[in-house]
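cron nightly-structures :: item 1 of 1
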Amino acid sequence: MEHNKSFFWPQGLLIALVALVGSFSLGLMMLVKPNASEAQSQNNISETPTSAKLGTQERIESLKTTMLSSWQQQAKAKGFAYAIPPSFLGKTIEAAKLSQGKKVIALTFDDGPWPESTAQVLDILKQNDIKATFFVVGQNVKNFPDLLKRVVAEGHTVANHTWHHWYHFMNPQTAAYEIDNTTNLIFQLTGVKTNLFRPPGGIMHNGVAAYAKNSKYAIIMWSSDSMDYSRPSVPRLINNVFREAKPGGIVLMHDGGGNRSHTVQALPNIIADFRKQGYSFVTVPELLEMQAKDQQFIANKK
């Protein structure tokens, strides 16, 4: 028995020593590890502002893209169309008749979408919280689809201005191609079914306007012509706009089809001058809706 005791004692001492060394090592590791974690934490903190900012911006852009895509899908499913009073379908409109003298004006832009100038016009409209109406050319929509998507996403009205912007006479088949292809592409890209049409050059007797009328488009002309297609000086362009401007009027300008730098330069002044005269801005559908309500109000008084 005594021999057995002497055998287990050194063994027990060895076990105790090993346990003590293990405890000391564990304690040392615990002391060192928080320091390492703290250093890592400090590095993470120093990196957080930049990475968080970039991450937030990416999430916002992703959310915008998702929302736009969702909106377009819903619009396609519902066949979204601008609210045009039925009495205007198949009719030609140069301005709205507002008996109550409301000082509203509709800014319209033709021949886009177009590189640079369409985006510049959209930027100015956004800065001034104004919605306008864009009469787009089908082949330009095909070439610059993202610009059209931006027009719709920012709340502007999009309308048909034929596929090629031709002036020559067109038989019914050619006129159908010019209008139907443009309307269909607008719908495919944005989900919008437009029933607004403007004939290129305002030409009413080359077959295309007749097809649009028979197809129950509202033919939207203008009451105030900037003549910016001839590239007048900026002061003259502004003067052209205001020479025939009136409440309920429709202003013709261009964001595409050529160099539109003078239009871009003049637009902030045009907006400011209209506001100084007490005008507010509406889209063409809003303008027509105002006329319809105005006429209903007069009819109810009789």
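cron nightly-structures :: done
The CA atoms of residues 113 and 147 lie 6 Å apart.
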